[in-house]
Amino acid sequence: MAISVWRCSLTRVRAMWLNKRCLSLYNSSHGFNETEIKEKLANFPGGSVDLTKGANGIAELCVNNSSRMNAFTGTMMIQLEEQMSELESWQDGKGLIVYGAGNTFCSGSDLKAVKAISSPQEGIMMCMFMQNTLTRLQRLPLISVALVQGKALGGGSELCTACDFRLMAPESEIRFVHKQMGLVPGWGGAARLIHLIGSRNAFKLLSSTAKVDPEYALKIGLADEVLNCVDDRSLEEAHKWLSTYTKGSPAVNRALKKVILSGREQKLEDALRTEKDIFGTVWGGPANLEALSKAAKHK
Ligand SMILES: CCC(=O)SCCNC(=O)CCNC(=O)[C@H](O)C(C)(C)COP(=O)(O)OP(=O)(O)OC[C@H]1O[C@@H](n2cnc3c(N)ncnc32)[C@H](O)[C@@H]1OP(=O)(O)O
């Protein structure tokens, strides 16, 4: 009995490890040493990244470091990575809302930590670690939404581009301030921004470091909705917005996200083949059979 439980958990750990390796961009073959960078990041503590999984299949991920405008400390980067593993294995999940504590989104990386790991080699390792994590966020089988209240600056603006959708509260701003810090985005924000708003618009935002308010963000396609509420009510409003897109069973919602992901990331022929495989996972499945038994009409 004990041996079979042990084997089972070993299989689960192995599956999670393989899953993580598939979803990540960098591993040891790219010269990336995750253990080493995690040990470095652990020296910069403070704040937390808190995950709440709802019974309705919607999770909330809160970037929480209020005294520093939710800047990412080293331990928060590690926690964000760990929360991705938790979400990847959440079979009942359908959606995710990423937001910041204290009615502001995130002011990027913690400047104290950045100063302390300022060698190019360490910078590249931190960058690979965060790109892996944010790519896994983007590839979650969940519909993800960034709820931007207050400010999303630097790495905070990059974090919001890793979500499928962005909702902006009144008076909020997204701002790629990297150039003013003598940097360019490194957490994948430039590449993702170009996919979202095109290279000319992205070029303008990155080179001017302009504040993007909700109306302009909506106009250029960076935001999907301007919310009416601020404070805690905006989280409620985000839940309501997301619920339009997460109706139905987790299996179908997750399959849908996978189809979108393959269309987004793969070449057409590969995406078509993946779509066929994913179709096979829902065809004749419980949700499909239930719909057929009801002889649904779509009037
Ligand atoms: C991936 C690469 C990157 O992320 S590069 C971008 C790094 N981020 C930044 O440069 C943002 C720097 N911060 C700011 O511009 C301002 O603090 C902003 C966010 C506009 C807020 O201004 P304001 O509302 O006046 O508040 P404040 O400056 O008094 O800040 C409150 C406390 O929070 C701190 N804080 C803020 N951001 C960070 C950060 N990124 N890292 C570390 N600490 C940060 C401030 O220092 C301030 O702390 P304290 O009260 O002075 O102890």
Notable characteristics:
299 residues; alpha/beta; six-stranded mixed β-sheet; two-stranded parallel sheet; 13 helices; 8 strands; globular; binds propionyl Coenzyme A; Enoyl-CoA_hyd/isom_CS
Brief summary of the model shown:
This protein is an alpha/beta fold and 299 residues long.
Describe the protein's architecture and organization.
This protein is an alpha/beta fold and 299 residues long. Helices cover 52% and strands 12% of the residues. The protein contains 13 helices and eight strands. Strands 1-2-3-4-6-8 form a six-stranded mixed β-sheet, with helices on both faces. Strands 5-7 form a two-stranded parallel sheet. The chain binds propionyl Coenzyme A. Propionyl Coenzyme A is lined by residues 68-69, 71, 107-112, 151, 153-155, 177-178, 181, 183, 187.
SSE topology string:
HHEEHEHHEEHEEHHHEHHHH
Q: Beta-strand level of the residues, as a percent range? A: 5-15%
Low-pLDDT ranges: none
Number of helices: 13
Helix content: 40-55%
Distance separating the two termini: 54 Å
Total beta strand runs: 8
Main sheet: which strands, in order across? 1-2-3-4-6-8
Structural class: alpha/beta
Query: What composes the largest sheet?
Result: 6 strands, mixed
List the ligand species.
Answer: propionyl Coenzyme A
Taken from the alpha-carbon principal axes, the silhouette is globular
How much is the average pLDDT? 94
The rounded Rg comes to 20 Å
GO cellular component, one term: cytosol
Enzyme class: lyase
Catalytic activity: (2R)-ethylmalonyl-CoA + H(+) = butanoyl-CoA + CO2; (2S)-ethylmalonyl-CoA + H(+) = butanoyl-CoA + CO2; (S)-methylmalonyl-CoA + H(+) = propanoyl-CoA + CO2
Main location: cytoplasm
